[in-house]
Amino acid sequence: MDEASFLAGYDPRAYPSVAVTVDVVALTIRDGKLCVLLVERGEQPFAGHRALPGGFVREETLDEAALRELAEETGLTSGEAAGELDRVHFEQLRTYGNPGRDPRMRIVSVAYLAFAPHLPEPTAGSDAAHAYWVPVEEAKDLAFDHDQILADGLERARDKLEYTPLATAFVGTDFTISELRQVYAAVWGEELHAGNFHRKVLSVPGFVESTGETAARGGERGGPKAKLYRAGDARLLHPALLRPTREDRVR
Amino acid sequence: MDEASFLAGYDPRAYPSVAVTVDVVALTIRDGKLCVLLVERGEQPFAGHRALPGGFVREETLDEAALRELAEETGLTSGEAAGELDRVHFEQLRTYGNPGRDPRMRIVSVAYLAFAPHLPEPTAGSDAAHAYWVPVEEAKDLAFDHDQILADGLERARDKLEYTPLATAFVGTDFTISELRQVYAAVWGEELHAGNFHRKVLSVPGFVESTGETAARGGERGGPKAKLYRAGDARLLHPALLRPTREDRVR
DNA sequence: CCAATAGTGTCTATGAGACAATATAAC
DNA sequence: GTTATATTGTCTCATAGACACTATTGG
């Protein structure tokens, strides 16, 4: 029986109540580490545990709900700070709806993935005082099934770095090739050969384009001033930047 | 405010009622064409239109709901025919929840993608009498946002053929390289060079393994008897079988 | 000066794809 | 026999990655 004929004959409110929420895996890079935005839970269940930011879906699209939740948790809801959210890349990750994933009632949660260049630390005193960035390797024992959601989000992020220009969502509008390489290193958790990476990025059509400008200064410990680039118009990278040591992932 | 603290303070039943359904994009190959399973709608809205099979989620996981719906629509619910479903590859596609996607109420639908070797035509007289396989290029003007869901499913399927052994889900347990090539041709909608495809498939570790057997007979119009293979243990293809003419998809 | 980094050059191994060649089986 | 198909061979070009080298800048 299809959805509609079912609907025509039944009142859905007669069914056990189901709630729909969004949860957001928001990733950024701070101090060379890949970090995820977490909130502190003060109440049962999972009091004292950390969780992904999220909340109920209102009269809005799922995408809007996810963006709203991120804005609320980061405190970037107004003023010039709200503009920061414009550069955040958003995409739906996956939906989690196992019975029992929330001990109180049936909750179906649509998880989103967000990639941010460098959002500020949520400031104390705001609504978001209980939210903060945590290096992903320290984000363990999250509430509900959020460990799984985070793991799925990280896997997606690592995969998409290979064949999309997603990495540019983690840096400013103007960036050096080294900065881009550090994004890959942080997300993949391994160093990349600077020379080969440099040549490869420039060889992918539409990945980056030169601004003609040069960085204000060299590296912290010396080195020439790097050229600046901005994101190109490619939506897919071809050829892709395959990550090393993918043999493990094959079987 | 996160999901849980919100829950603690609010009765979700006070919110506008939201229903959760699953819709299934079930694909198979019949007569060399990629086909999708559709159901005929007899009632408003969208009476006379076709739709993807789907229905409400019950006290079960989302995956179970999708599998159940497919079983009901294909009539493969009992006996030896039910075993056919064991070889169906299932994966979650995406969730659709825009307000207004169903004109009657807020419905959030979790879409699934199913790849089947060769399911029988749903038999008349069963519950599934109103369901049938349709070549994807003829599947237009579907109910609700199902055109979009189908398009997303096809895009996913085409992508996954590149880097996963998904194509083996469309053929029997034993198959020839030519049969595998015809799967790629049907899903990608373009012919592939037989010689290069052959060598490439065999060069990917874990994609296929020889059975040692040979097909009972040659091609319909002549040719040698092909060797038989079965799916290997690879979960990802490396190197990938990149599809031709991907330049269009880059920008 | 010294150390670190940006950027380029070179070499090798591998894969993609065009094309050709050979062998086998249906009709 | 004729034709289509399975399978293998060969050649060329592009790319990945290892490694080396030069130039530039901060300290």
TrEMBL record, chains A, B:
It comes from the Bacteria. This is NUDIX hydrolase. InterPro entries: NUDIX_hydrolase-like_dom_sf, NUDIX_hydrolase_CS, NUDIX_hydrolase_dom, WH-like_DNA-bd_sf, WH_DNA-bd_sf, WHD_NrtR. Gene3D superfamilies: Nucleoside Triphosphate Pyrophosphohydrolase, Winged helix-like DNA-binding domain superfamily/Winged helix DNA-binding domain. The keyword Hydrolase applies. Residues 19-156 form the Nudix hydrolase domain. Keywords: Hydrolase. SUPFAM superfamilies: Nudix (SSF55811), Winged helix' DNA-binding domain (SSF46785). One of its GO terms (molecular function) is hydrolase activity. PANTHER family: ADP-RIBOSE PYROPHOSPHATASE, SLR1690 PROTEIN. It holds the Pfam family WHD_NrtR.
